[in-house]
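Shipment paperwork, digital attachment
Item: protein structure file
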Amino acid sequence: MRPHRATALVATSIVLVLGCASISPSPTIDPRSPSPASTSAVPPLADVPFFRADPAANGIHPGPGPTGKPELAWRADVGDMHMVPILAQGLLIVGANDGRLVALDAHTGEARWTYQASDAIKPSLAAVGGVIYASDGSALHAVDVASGSRRWSTPVDDTVGRVNAVDGVVYVGSTGAVLGLDGRTGEIVWRWDGPPDIPIAAGPVTDGVGYFAARDGRVYAIDIQSRRERWRVQTISLDVPSGQVVGETFYVSTNQGEAAEPVGEIYAIDRASGDIRWRFRAPSSLQLKEGPVKDGVLYANGRADGIWALRDDGSQATVLWHIDTPESHWPMALVGDVLYQVRVDGSLGAYDVASQGELLWETDAEGNWAGGPIVSGGMVFLTNDSTGAMAFADPALIARLPKRVAKTSPLPSSSSSEAFNPFTVVRAFTWDATGIEEPLGMEAGPDGLLYIFDTKPQVTVINPTVGHVVRRWGRQGAGPSEFDVARPDDNMGYGDIAVAPDGRVYVADGSNHRVQLFSPEGEFQFQFGSFGTGDGQFGSINEIAIGSDGSVYVQDGQISKFTADGKFVWRTDEGAVGLAVRSDGVLLGTCEGCKQILLLDPEDGRIRGRMDLPGIDGDGFGLLSLDPDGNIFIGVYGSASQMVFDRNGKLLGADYLEPDEEITRLGRTIIWGDTWFPSPVVLPNGRAFIFGKDGLLELKVTLP
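Attachment content:
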């Protein structure tokens, strides 16, 4: 049966030095900005997945913004760029001039993944349904948000301007046409041919109408279903950006471009008729960019004339107020009554629109062009053409953000001393933040979420991108959706969790001697097993694992196999401690004291091979897990370590800690390492998670 957990040791040394983010007192909230949902935790990061926030390009951001003058939370050098970033699933997505699409953790600035395109990424992106759409001028790329892996790439010559995505179709402009591609496959499913040999930008698509701007100075309204032109408007400039839709009006401005004379104007166009209701010029007549519209007031900023508040009176624009500001080209963002402006000099300014543009705060000039901003989760994000991506936040919020920690530790003298430490802790989510008691099992689902079974007993589902709890279910008991993990000794408990390829969740309800099956949302489906020694019966269940074909393996001292719907297949007398299933179906198990990995045949459970592992001080190998490449992560009894082997048993790395550090957890003092936590869970994008003394740790794993 499973060894006594007081002798088990799987935590890594990196957890000993991790500094957790402390909880700061609640800051004073600026009444002009919406308040965070909670002042005792990090506010959630709502997505800003399009250029100017949404497909209609309104520029209203989810917020909240900083509560006072912010400070730099982090900076990430991602190379030269000219880019307005987007925010999706807690990742700030930027594109570089060398063709890289880079995902940064929005709370820490840590790079999560990089995707390589052929040429410079165009200045705006779109993200829908877990997929990012980006153009490099010669192709449109669909990239998975979570992993950075390519979904598809479709050649599109001479792509122009922003990428938009509406109703499953991704729109991108090109020379002489606007194309629509199926968001799932990349197949071109829609096309509108405009003026030949002229670049055309795909602007907002809403209510079945697309608004497209050509480099002949014309704006076109095109019926998406029939592909017929509803109207066209000739502007004063040959350089027209994509514009925005607000209610029954299409607002668009003109860029200076190559014009010899100043041509900066804003147009308010009736969406139904194409009639120009009004045009507005600032005194300099230089470029003036139409920005967010709220309560009938449009806020615009420009190259030489500062910020204007223009009330749309139908047939004319009435100036409500005007203030001088540094030069600015990108459209502003609005949250509540606060305007956020990124300036050409790289600085950021915040203005109170309710007080006629009163300057609330500004950051220092960076000395170069900047793009953005994005305002979400109490933070403001922007990009600088030469100094990278930046995030600003209140000092109190910065103190609560996850911290990037880089730490390695020397190896003690042993037969594995040549192995290097492959683990770096990049951040931690505290025990209090996750609400986890003592974890018995953890696994990632196909939805990218972490499913954790603990001693409360309950299942907790966590979004690993931001560390937020998505849902919980379960309580003490013996009925459906109830669990019992109690042990007769002072160890943590009996039980484990596994997630099938179809997303269904299997919980080994250890001391109830059964397995319960749930939907990913926590809805009870059915159960199988009972107490006993016969086929399909269990003692106290320690481990559970799922194969790629959906087969279920349960370990209660021996190992039993079941089909996905709980039908008994076989039982073997071979004992094992940890269980994992390789992609080829072979079952891996560790055994106490033998210092081997057992390879079990999935057809009958017989041992088909043994994998000898390098010796190490300790009593043997314990729980194990696999990464997507088949590398094996194993905790070691009695030798405070976590080891990594390739699929053939070659040692790739190891990490150690001193086994005598006392910590207090759940009202009792334990020797850290004398408690048994699951081995690392490694996601397809390479991010890894493990529990340590400071909570749920995110690891960067670097393997030779």
